[in-house]
Amino acid sequence: xxxxxxxxxxxxxxxxxxxxxxxxxxxxxxxxxxxxxxxxxxxxxxxxxxxxxxxxxxxxxxxxxxxxxxxxxxxxxxxxxxxxxxxxxxxxxxxxxxxxx
Length: 101
Fold this sequence. Notes:
- 63% of the residues lie in helices and 0% in strands.
- The chain is mostly helical.
- Mean pLDDT is 88; it is low at 15-19.
């Protein structure tokens, strides 16, 4: 009588769900790209890039909220000067993100 071949049971595969980035991360990335496009506030650009890197390591968004509030002031001033590329929607989006802090 032949033995039936049995396969060893496979361990269940754990699916890791990568959490989507919080709104402040997406907002900070948008702020950084807009500042680069306008070629203004180079120190603020460097601060945002540093805070994004810091967030990727420790997941503490405090620095991102700080630089976003600084950028909000810059964009409000640029909006008052009617700088091309700075829209009221951009300012409103940043304000909404900061309000959900």
